[in-house]
Specification:
This protein is an alpha/beta fold and 235 residues long. 39% of the residues lie in helices and 14% in strands. The protein has helices spanning 3-17, 24-30, 32-48, 52-66, 117-120, 201-234; strands spanning 69-70, 75-76, 81-82, 89-90, 95-96, 101-102, 107-109, 128-129, 134-135, 140-142, 146-147, 152-153, 158-159, 168-170, 175-176. β14 and β15 form a beta hairpin. α3 packs antiparallel against α4 (52-66). The chain is elongated and about 95 Å long.
């Protein structure tokens, strides 16, 4: 497909997902995420053809201009939307499907086994994201794991294990969100979060501890009263 058609499709997808985008001209000239993706297309082509240094130079230019770092070896599908984008890092062996949305400060990072650096270059070290995945701001997806199609990664989540399709995960480490409306594969959720309050796993744990302590306190008070009654009877 000619590059101008690819860019047009990228712009159309951004218009559909970002209510702040008021015109195609605005997206074309002002959206750093679009600029980073277009530059990556050129860098990736050079990388595949063996022009590794040229590819890295193009990616560095993109990083300097946009604040978004995409390794030229990364494989990116159609209509990737990087919203805001500053601080996004996508590693060399990462693979992204179509219609993926990524927000600022996201890392698709690599975790390699303890082997020599030469062998690591031939190893898949970075995540694979399926079609339609949304990654909230500040999320860290680390290692050669699979985030299946339609999954949602909440803001600041740390993901180190595979994520099934069409669910939302939140927290550190990331866990599935208990939500009746969790099947969101066909619904676009900005920042990967559901409607309503987003439960904090730490707060939920603390609330559970408080309830447990309260229950123990009631039990202790009951036993104290019972022991006092027994003492009075013996007298």
């Amino acid at each position: 497909m000619p590059m101008f058609k690819v860019i047009r499709h990228e712009i159309d997808s951004i218009m559909q997902r970002d209510p702040a985008a008021r015109s195609r001209a605005e997206v074309f000239f002002c959206y750093s995420g679009l600029h980073a993706v277009v530059l990556h297309r050129f860098a990736h082509t050079a990388w595949q053809r063996g022009f590794r240094l040229s590819a890295r130079l193009i990616s560095q230019v993109g990083r300097f201009l946009t604040g978004i770092e995409i390794h030229p070896g990364a494989t990116i599908g159609k209509r990737l939307f990087i919203d805001h984008g500053m601080g996004v890092v996508i590693g060399e062996t990462a693979e992204l499907g179509d219609d993926v949305t990524i927000y600022q400060a996201v890392t698709l990072g690599g975790i390699a086994p303890s082997i020599d650096s030469e062998s690591q270059r031939e190893t898949n070290r970075h995540p694979t994201l399926g079609d339609g995945v949304i990654v909230g701001s500040g999320a860290q997806i680390l290692g050669p794991i699979n985030v299946s199609a339609g999954a949602r990664i909440g803001a600041n989540a740390v993901v180190t294990q595979d994520v099934p399709a069409a669910i939302t995960v939140v927290g550190i480490p990331a866990r599935e969100l208990e939500n009746k409306d969790n099947d969101v594969a066909e619904v676009f959720r900005p920042y990967g979060t559901p409607l309503g309050d987003l439960p904090d796993p730490l707060v939920r744990s603390l609330e559970g501890l408080v309830k447990h302590v309260a229950s123990l306190q009631e039990r202790i008070e009951f036993l104290e009263k019972d022991s006092k009654k027994k003492i009075k009877k013996t007298k």
